[in-house]
Amino acid sequence: MYPQRLGAIMPQRVSLNVTDARSGEAFIASLLGKMVKFWKREKQENRRLVFVGKRDGAPWQHGFDLEDLLRASAEALGKGSLGTSYKTMLEEMTVVVVKRLRNVAASREEFTACVEVVGGVEHLNLAPVRGYVYSKDECLLVGDYFPAGSLSDRLHGSRGTDDRTPMDWEARICAALCAARGVAHLHTVPGLAHGNVKSSNLLLRTDIDAAALTDYCLNQLFAPAPASPGGYRAPELMDARRPTFKSDVYSLGVLFLELLTGKFPDGNDAFDLPRWVMSVMKEEWVLEALDAELLRRLAGNAEEGMLKLLLLAIKCVAPVPGARPDADDVVKGVEEIVEEQGSTATEKSQGTHGASEEEEQSKGTTL
Prior knowledge:
GO terms for molecular function: ATP binding; protein kinase activity. The protein is an alpha+beta fold. 41% of the residues lie in helices and 11% in strands. It has a six-stranded antiparallel beta sheet. A two-stranded antiparallel ribbon has the order 2-3. A two-stranded antiparallel ribbon has the order 9-10. The longest helix is centred in the N-terminal third of the chain and has 26 residues, at 21-46. The chain is globular, with a radius of gyration of 25 Å.
């Protein structure tokens, strides 16, 4: 491919009198000058920030490159399985998150094709990808900044301290519904598995009904790696780059169990949360598996809703993939629980399944 591009600056036919040294030197100097200019332009284009998707219904138009992003003041937000995320600011005081990817194995064409698909996804419960940089030195993704943090932060942060405000049942069931709707939309449009469903990848807005999944459909970009045991991973998933719809549903089930129990399933010891829940249910009263913070704040028929979500979660984490429900059925199951609870979440969430970016902006997303 590179020689073919270089050929674009080569003359189609060259007539050079070898006896004219000055003419030959001039030609070579001219050719080298064109090659240097081409290489510089190619390098600049390779390091340029390419914007995908839309903002307020129109394509983004910015002129930033890698150096602009790296020079911008940045605040490290955290390190995940795909890379490290930084909060930074572009022009017009636009705050974004730049994810610095590591171990990318995809070619430029593969990377671009994948991110273009992901960038075209528009749904309230899926965090949009705004742009990317692909170069020899760096691979970056640019997305929205969510000041409220992640579900993991909200659910587990400051546990055991006096200044902690526990996450109530309504907020937890809303988070479950947002995650299920996001996954169901991906399975339908564009028909891809998320591959990385977990509480740290469910980002929160001020309105809990607008929580959005991030880091979706990107597994194929990275070097082959065995899927880590336990955590959110389905037992049949041997290669983390090849998630399936059913492995996504398993991860949703683990997320539901995390919401119900308050236990973090993705620690260094790869805590097997489904196995723990099943053992508690066999040996003790079912409610012993639920988060004590939830049980201390029961209201109305919340206990019934918790038990129904627990049963749905157990179906999702069935060892045999074929025994798990489809994502659409999971959405229906959670919606029924919300409706039976008489929660305002139903009214707030009407029409968000398949919501457009314009609707998302009206919710007050911080970008």
